[in-house]
Amino acid sequence: MPKPTAGPPAPGDVPPRGDARAGQRRRTQARILAAATELFVATGYERTTIRAVAQAAGVDAGLVMHYFGSKQALFEQVTRGGQLPPAPSGPPDQVADQVLAQLAEALANEPVQSLALLRSMLTNPEAAHTMGEGTLRYRNQLAQAIDAPDADLRAALIIALIIGVIVDRHLLKSGPLNTTTPADIIALLRPALRTLLAGA
Amino acid sequence: MPKPTAGPPAPGDVPPRGDARAGQRRRTQARILAAATELFVATGYERTTIRAVAQAAGVDAGLVMHYFGSKQALFEQVTRGGQLPPAPSGPPDQVADQVLAQLAEALANEPVQSLALLRSMLTNPEAAHTMGEGTLRYRNQLAQAIDAPDADLRAALIIALIIGVIVDRHLLKSGPLNTTTPADIIALLRPALRTLLAGA
DNA sequence: GTCTATAAACCGATAGAC
DNA sequence: GTCTATCGGTTTATAGAC
Hints:
The structure is a homodimer. Chain A is mainly α. Chain A has two domains: 17-79, Homeodomain-like (Arc Repressor Mutant, subunit A); 92-198, Tetracycline Repressor, domain 2 (Orthogonal Bundle), CATH 1.10.357. Chain A has helices at 18-47, 50-57, 61-68, 71-79, 92-108, 112-120, 125-144, 151-172, 182-197. In chain A, helix 2 (50-57) crosses helix 3 and helix 5 packs antiparallel against helix 9 (182-197). The longest helix of chain A is centred in the N-terminal third of the chain and has 30 residues, at 18-47. Chain A is elongated and about 60 Å long. Chain A binds a DNA duplex through helix 1 and helix 3.
């Protein structure tokens, strides 16, 4: 069956004036982007094909290329905006609560842009590089809130813990971490985080 | 240059008796396995090609298939034997030290079989499944050493922390975690681990 | 025991019809 | 604005020569 004809042409539609065309284009682009996000998060960069994205969005593969230029550019569009939270600051006492609040938020609502990056960070060089830049920024600001000679190392361990927890819950999904409420998780993590933040 | 002729034929060699052939075969298989391990660890399952493995081992691509049957079977051969440490037990007080000792060992010497699995666990279903089985076993035994109603969750968080640290050090390699001695790392981790293990 | 040749499938990307 | 057709490249895997 070479012609599923899903959606976009809309046989009995209004005559396409300039505005209607632009609107149609925006909506189709958004549908492609949503489908690409879902597939990149689910299977990673390498296993996600332009053809599969097009099929999931109900359009042709050529159209995806026409709108986004290349597979790499499409991936960058998906992961753009997946920036980490504004980075905690202030007195060391409050930093723990801020970090835990951000983690709880990430555990409750799936941050799809970040998940697309996380899924491919071990196998795609571009994803690894983008992730590295993001964590570097976050780590530096986190280290400033730690009053200890090994603040950098402590910040790095905190980030490793956070990434491990998020990966387990949203990506690996194997174990108790994805059936437990965020509140229960951060309650157990609070004392551990305190020991890593306690510099002075 | 279609004929690098690297190694195996050995022009002026002894006439291949039965034993010599078997020895040659074993050595060639070992070379292929070593090359495959290196590439799987470095770039993951999808980006590692049979052709690249063959070239790195100095043999032909057809020979790799002849010996191992398929790419998937080759990957299983590489990751087999990558079993986790015997799992800690005993009084809760000693468990922390045992886990930290195992982690220090994994941080010092790269456990290549485990690293091959870790590299591909987010993008390859088989790798994810094998990892899931391994961590399930380890988590159950670890939970038995924790005297608390939420022992399973605590064990899962400990594993998430360990995986996060190992991934950062050996795979991502971005940050202070891969330039710090294992002793310094586990020294910072000990108090955090204690809070996660403290059930009673 | 090792390699050559090739099959069969799939990919990203391009050019152009409608 | 959307789709058809296709090119050129790469992959795993097989069959068979030496």
